[in-house]
Design a protein that fits this description.
Layout lengths: L11 H15 L1 H10 L21 E5 L2 E4 L4 E4 L2 H4 L8 H11 L10 H13 L5 E5 L2 H16 L3 E5 L37 H4 E4 L4 H10 L4 E6 L2 E2 L5 E2 L2 H14 L2 E5 L10 H6 L5 E5 L9 E5 L1 H4 L20 H13 L2 H25 L4 E5 L2 E5 L8 H7 L2 H12 L3 E2 L5 E3 L6 H30 L6
The protein binds pyridoxal-5'-phosphate.
Length: 469
């Protein structure tokens, strides 16, 4: 292991420069690819989440929980394509499943048995889902669930949580990250340019984990609300679990108001055989899924009570026409089913325990080296917040956030061979062992120590009247 940037007296600025230099030195081929990408992709990127400064490492392959970049650097993958690769990379059974259908064609423009088999596997695990439809992404799953809720209730509006991420489309992109002075609930702020101007009237915003306020909003707007959509554990906002009382109270409030409750389990399904709804003992009306259920291929699904999903029954002329060229394609359906078979209760318990160990180890490491940090999460999911403050919702997470410290931790880990999300998110896989977790904790301690030293040096500079750049 190197000791990049941990020179005594390093400031945040010198640490950032040292880490950037280390990254550039290790990744000349990635840099060349990035420069090539700049000529065809805006900012050189086709997925905002995968970009980080000065340029991302380009991957050449993945095997188990290891990624190898185009320069031959090896990383422990603690992200798994943003939680979707719960079995790591290129697991033999999944490769075989893909190969088995590849030779028969991947998509046929007609139904295949594999879509029934995956639907059956999902329905067995999630009793709240009586009928479901497949899509190609979690975004489309959310679009479908919201459409189903509007069709069933005849009402136009949706209430989502501030900081809740439900994919990349208009109604989902309100108040995901509304900044330091967010509007007063239930008003929201569209995230960025180009969204429909009517959006703020359609989407109401509530504070996560604040039952009295959220319940009052549901009651006040019951005549116009089709659904409340919530992640049982807010992912993008910093892997923040809902309290049991919040989810249970929300279930009761929506039921009383005749408003549908949608659980977005695109990320949290991995937490238990029956997803977070089993963990919390709360039964939603509709659920959205994605990521792990595709076994590494693009997927989404939405489903719930048969009476609600009947809106998509194509035998009826007035049914909602819901299509997608690759919905239910044989490749994804086949690989997804095998991935679910491998995601057994004992395996979930094992990676959840690894996650408990990882979070505790990282927290202890941060505390030991004097880095103010809080490692949040549940089961096989985690997030490093660069502050000791308690994080329970979007506002507390964003008050605790420091893009600069998170970027230094990310680059510090990357240059030492640990791959996490630039914003600090972690997800473990069944490909991992205790030894991998120990190595991640050890490496995190080094990266955190360098940041802590630089932060303290910056404090000294500040207290002596210097500039913190
Ligand atoms: C909770 C949640 N919902 C929906 C989505 C959208 O899924 P996709 O990226 O497959 O469109 C995501 C993606 O990260 C997510 O985290």
């Amino acid at each position: 292991m190197t000791t990049i940037g941990s020179a005594p007296g390093a400031t945040l600025e010198t640490l950032a420069a040292a880490l950037e230099r280390a990254h550039r030195d290790r990744t000349p081929r990635s840099r060349a690819l990035y420069e090539r990408a700049l000529r065809t992709l805006p900012g050189g990127s086709t997925r905002t989440a995968t970009y980080y400064s000065p340029y991302p490492a380009y991957m050449e392959r993945g095997a188990g929980c290891r990624l190898t970049d185009v320069d031959g650097n090896v990383y422990i993958d603690c992200l798994g394509n943003y939680t979707s690769l719960v079995h790591g990379h290129a697991r033999a059974e999944l490769v075989a499943a893909l190969a088995s259908c590849g030779a028969r064609g991947t998509a046929h423009g007609a139904p295949v048995e594999a879509e029934i088999a995956l639907a059956e596997a999902i329905v067995r695990r999630l009793p709240s889902i009586e009928r479901l439809r497949f899509t190609n992404s979690g975004t489309e799953a959310v679009m479908g669930a919201v459409r189903a809720a509007r069709a069933y209730t005849g009402r136009p509006k949706v209430l989502k949580m501030e900081g809740g991420y439900h994919g990349s489309y208009d109604a989902a992109e309100v108040s995901v990250d509304p900044g330091a002075a967010p509007p007063t609930w239930p008003a929201g702020r569209p995230d960025g340019a180009g969204l429909s101007p009517g959006l703020t009237g359609e989407v109401l915003i509530a504070p996560f984990n604040d039952l009295p306020t959220t319940r009052a909003l549901v009651e006040r707007h019951r005549q116009e609300l089709a659904a409340v959509i919530v992640e049982p554990v807010m992912g993008a906002a910093g892997v923040i679990p809902a309290t049991e009382s919040f989810l249970r109270g929300l279930r009761a409030a929506t039921r009383d108001a005749g408003v549908l409750l949608i659980f977005d389990e695109v990320v949290t399904f991995r937490l238990a055989v029956g997803g977070a709804q089993e963990l919390y003992g709360v039964v939603p009306d509709l659920t959205t899924l994605g990521k792990v259920i595709g076994g590494g291929l693009p997927i989404g699904a939405f489903g719930g009570r048969a009476a609600i999903m009947a809106a998509f029954d194509a035998r009826h002329p007035e049914a909602i026409s819901h299509s997608g060229t690759f919905n239910g394609n044989m490749g994804t359906m086949t690989v997804g089913r095998v991935a679910l078979e491998l995601l057994t209760g004992p395996e979930i318990a094992r990676i959840n325990a690894l996650g408990d160990r990882l979070r505790a180890g990282m927290q202890a490491a941060a505390d030991a080296v004097g880095l103010p940090a809080r490692v949040s999460g549940v089961g096989s999911l985690g997030h490093v917040h660069p502050s000791r403050a308690r994080v329970s919702d979007y506002r507390s997470a964003s008050a605790a956030a420091s893009r600069r410290i998170s970027a230094l931790l990310h680059l510090g880990l990357l240059t030492r061979g640990v791959f996490i999300a630039p914003r600090g998110m972690l997800a473990l896989s069944t490909a991992m062992t205790d030894a991998d977790v120990d190595l991640v904790i050890h490496t995190f301690r080094e990266a955190a120590a360098a940041v802590a030293d630089a932060t303290n040096a910056a404090d000294v500079t500040l207290h002596t009247g210097g500039e913190l750049s």
